[in-house]
Specification:
The complex is a heterodimer of chains A (about 325) and B (about 300). With about 325 residues, chain A is mostly helical. Chain A contains 17 helices and no strands. With about 300 residues, chain B is an all-alpha fold. Chain B has one domain: Orthogonal Bundle (MetI-like fold). Chain B starts with 16 loop residues before the first helix and ends in a 5-residue tail after the last helix. The interface between A and B is large, with 103 and 106 residues. Chain A: One of its GO terms (biological process) is transmembrane transport.
Chain lengths: ~325, ~300
Amino acid sequence: MANVSTFDTTSTVVTDAAVLATTPSRALEGPSGRKPKRRLSRRNIILYGTLGLAALYYLLPLYVMVVTSLKGMPEIRMGNVFSPPMEITFEPWVKAWAEACTGLNCDGLSRGFWNSVRILLPSVVVSIFIASVSGYSLANWRFKGSELFFSILIIGAFIPYQVMIYPIVIILREIGIYGTLTGLIIVHTIFGMPILTLLFRNYFTSLPEELFKAARIDGAGFWQIYGRIMLPMALPIFVVAMILQVTGIWNDFLFGVVFTRPDSYPMTVQLNNIVNSVQGVKEYNVNMAATLLTGAVPLIVYFVSGRLFVRGIAAGAVKG
Amino acid sequence: MAKTHQSARPNQLFRNLNSKIASIPMIFVALVIFLGGSVWTVIYSFTNSRLLPRATFVGFDQYERLWGSARWLISIQNLAIYGILSLIFSLVVGFVLAALMDQKIRFENVFRTIFLYPFALSFIVTGLVWQWILNPEFGIQHIVRSLGWETFEFNPVYDPDIVIYGILIAGLWQGTGLVMCLMLAGLRGIDEDIWKASRVDGIPMWRTYLFIVIPMMRPVFITTLVIIASGIVKLYDLVVAQTSGGPGNASEVPAKYVYDYMFQAQNLGQGFAASTMMLLTVAIIIVPWAYLEFGGRKRG
């Protein structure tokens, strides 16, 4: 027992060892009664102190964004990025939303917001529908080569987008939809496919096979089983997929810049153009308000969805 | 599942027809876009395409020009610095945070929410916020100076020597939450009995982590490594937002090089060559991993 305490650096084990050493009979019976609580042990101070400091570091940019967006320009020039606003003003928010200029358009970020919404809704629906059907095929209706295609798809997820962008530009141009909303929706569907298909395939594979067999015996076909059995059972995974796609598509920059025309740029692209424009005086408060506005959608999704978000990224990250 | 062998086999092509029809988009994406697109880009990187792709082959000319270009060399160097440091820091920080979170703490959900929220934000938002925080006139440098240290120099927005570290700070802020989450999931997968056994044997906690838990978490580490690494190669939006590649071209990265040459300099051949190099980099990371993961045991 003495060895324990000399080797150990953490106080829990040390206290346990001490307890064991003083009352051997109780130790044999195992722990009983309430767990001793020592809130302010050295271990806890270090533990919560470190976590608290880390949390502060992560929260700082959010704080800076909020604070800066509520200050007037004179106040910004006098203080620093962290100083809280003395006079709260919402003017930067109004200006960012309705008046900020990109190029010739001076109708603010609202334009980008609505563009993003127009891109987001159909892209999410189409990409999730196609990927869920593919995942369902892969899980329940395998055919020769289906696993091979799936492997290519998964490996393709690691290929840098830059490698595939130009061939896609050519294909879309040939069909005549390069620069249109349809084109961008197709692009989002393509690049959302690996992760979403993986997600759905794994989920459908995990469902009991008997369900599928019973439905087949009852004479249900491919689409019937999908619509009547798989779809209703997979609602949670649809929510996870939606979270993934909403944040992913909203945050996209590269595809927006490559596959749309300036007047239909999504919010991220417009935000970048507003903030990094070289003309005029830099209005940091408007910039930060615009940044917050752009970040608001994924942040709301994140805070509302909570654990499901974590599940989504875990599903995306850990192979099934 | 669909392997019911009948005596009179119907035409193979029409078996599971609906499934095949439903999989057409997936097959199209896998074969035409991912495979075909990559092969096409690699092939056309050997041409002298400029404004439009042209099939006039010029051998390795584009690559010679690429590796002779100062901007590309800077891009590669930046990516190497960012990549290596980002890998080390995100793994270490992510693991330490996860280990702290795994101590049966209170408010675990609160902490996790805080650590992970930057991951929900786009790189554009991340880059713009950090551009502002690191702003020399109002941000960190200004604050430290006003605290009395007048000669303090920390200007990763306009100082070409350290600009890439500014991007690294922003990148780590955005991405470590994800690593923490993956590591935490890995830690939760470790059998409780391991901890009990090591406690009975009197092994200090840090040694248990270092010599027992981390080796046990090898698969988690490898998966995380592959995810971070393939994300690093794609690094683009963050640089565009935070520095636009500047000052000068001090913070250029390969993905930006590709974009600029393809869509702005109208020098497609250079863009293809550069993107082929990116593909090669990813292949070096992915192929051994994919071989280990999928090659050894056939999954059915």
